[in-house]
Amino acid sequence: MIAPAVLLALTSLTETALAHGGIWNYSIAGNWQPGFFPYYPAEGQSSIQRHWIDFSPIKDVTSFALVCNSPGSIAEKYASIPAGGEVKAYYPGWPHDIGPIVVWMAYCGSEPTSCDSFNGTGKYWFKIQEVGLQSGTIRNGQWALKDLLASNYTWTTTIPETLRQGAYLMRHEIIALHVPFEPEFYPECAHLWVTGGGSEKPSEEYLASIPGVWRQDEPDLHMTIYEEPTSSRTEWKIPGPPVWRGS
Ligand SMILES: *[C@@H]1O[C@H](CO)[C@@H](O)[C@H](O)[C@H]1NC(C)=O
Ligand SMILES: *[C@@H]1O[C@H](CO)[C@@H](O)[C@H](O)[C@H]1NC(C)=O
Ligand SMILES: *[C@@H]1O[C@H](CO)[C@@H](O)[C@H](O)[C@H]1NC(C)=O
Ligand SMILES: [Cu+2]
């Protein structure tokens, strides 16, 4: 017997799952664990992922939902990981193949639970990874999203080895570019406790505000991949600050 609330959730799941998606699970230094699943009741869930409402994209680049999705309320847990460790994010059934993946972090504070009181809105964010168009054309080339589809919907990121210890938000962001002039943003955040004895932090030039980093008049986001001169271009630059890799 399935409870009506769950049935309802599953119905909306089949509708939206066809078009969109997000991170269901994380592997932290080799161990898989569940994220927050938006189509189950929040009650009873306990994970490292900030809460999100559904698989739909965020299209308003000024929205607070761009930070850690909507509602973006705090996660119940933290995953401990040494600097230099590997995080894998699992996007089962992810449907789109045109667009980049950008992975960001923000320092919440020096206590193991500092993210509990950290909103994330503002100039705190630095990129630790970005993959856009690696070869070919904007219309048909090898985008990060094609790599994601080719690797069983799994995206792998290494935490910079020299990053100072602390609590961090890790923000995965897919930008899907298949709809003309309507880039779709798919952010989700996780709580991390980074250990390992590093001492570095990114300087000002690496930091961006979210929301704020993406703009409505940014030509490389608000474009159509289906028409020239864009479709046959072989270069596409991810807007925003450079990636911080530590020294
Ligand atoms: C992956 O996430 C789903 C949805 O939250 C959950 O049902 C499943 O148990 C998770 N699997 C693992 C290995 O964490
Ligand atoms: C963060 O703060 C902004 C501005 O006060 C607010 O609008 C937004 O909803 C907050 N986000 C979260 C996740 O609480
Ligand atoms: C894809 O990755 C998920 C998460 O690690 C795993 O549960 C699943 O078995 C993998 N599927 C294949 C075909 O490798
Ligand atoms: Cu979609």
TrEMBL record:
Ranges where the Auxiliary Activity family 9 catalytic domain occurs: 20-230
Name assigned to this protein: AA9 family lytic polysaccharide monooxygenase
Record-listed E.C. numbers: 1.14.99.56
GO MF assignments: cellulase activity; cellulose binding; monooxygenase activity
Organism in which the protein naturally occurs: Trematosphaeria pertusa
Biological processes per GO annotation: cellulose catabolic process
Cellular compartments annotated: Secreted
Signal peptide residues on this chain, from the entry's feature table: 1-19
PANTHER family: GLYCOSYLHYDROLASE FAMILY 61-8 PROTEIN, PUTATIVE (AFU_ORTHOLOGUE AFUA_1G12560)-RELATED
CDD domains: LPMO_AA9 (cd21175)
Functional description taken from the UniProt entry: Lytic polysaccharide monooxygenase (LMPO) that depolymerizes crystalline and amorphous polysaccharides via the oxidation of scissile alpha- or beta-(1-4)-glycosidic bonds, yielding C1 and/or C4 oxidation products. Catalysis by LPMOs requires the reduction of the active-site copper from Cu(II) to Cu(I) by a reducing agent and H(2)O(2) or O(2) as a cosubstrate.
Top EC category: oxidoreductase
